[in-house]
């Protein structure tokens, strides 16, 4: 594991993320529910806090395998997919 220098900025962002997680997990008062808007805002705050922390951390801590593009290999078509392609080609040829 890479040694991450805990700068004041990173400490601040970790605290912000912690607060956002606590807010997301907070239960409403008895007999009440969170509005969709409240849940949406809490989710956006959580995503923003996580993104800010990720971007502030040194790139060296992320495994290189996360950034390797894996070549996509064509998978064989299923019989159903072949049938759909054949029908489409037939209609286009008409």
Summarize the structure.
The chain is mostly helical. The protein has three helices and no strands. The chain is flat and about 65 Å long.
Report what the structure shows.
With 94 residues, this protein is mainly alpha-helical. It has helices spanning 8-25, 36-56, 79-93. The protein has a domain at 1-63. The radius of gyration is 24 Å and the shape is flat. The model has no long low-confidence stretch (mean pLDDT 86).
Count up the helices: 3
Q: Per DSSP, what share of the residues sits in E-state strands of 2 or more residues? A: under 5%
pLDDT averaged over residues: 86
Radius of gyration: 24 Å
- Total strands: the figure is 0
Helix content: 55-70%
Secondary-structure element order, N to C: HHH
Oligomer: single chain
Poorly predicted ranges: none
Q: Which structural class do the helices and strands define?
A: mainly alpha
Morphology call: flat
Chart the SSEs and their pairings.
Elements: H1 8-25, H2 36-56, H3 79-93
Could you name the key traits of this structure?
94 residues; mainly alpha; 57% helix
């Amino acid at each position: 594991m890479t040694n991450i220098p805990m700068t004041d900025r990173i400490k601040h962002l970790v605290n912000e993320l912690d607060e956002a997680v606590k807010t997301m997990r907070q239960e409403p008062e008895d007999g009440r529910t969170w509005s969709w808007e409240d849940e949406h805002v809490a989710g956006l705050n959580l995503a923003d806090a996580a993104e800010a922390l990720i971007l502030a951390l040194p790139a060296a801590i992320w495994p290189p395998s996360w950034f390797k593009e894996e070549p996509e290999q064509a998978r064989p078509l299923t019989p159903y997919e072949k049938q759909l392609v054949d029908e489409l080609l037939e209609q286009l040829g008409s």
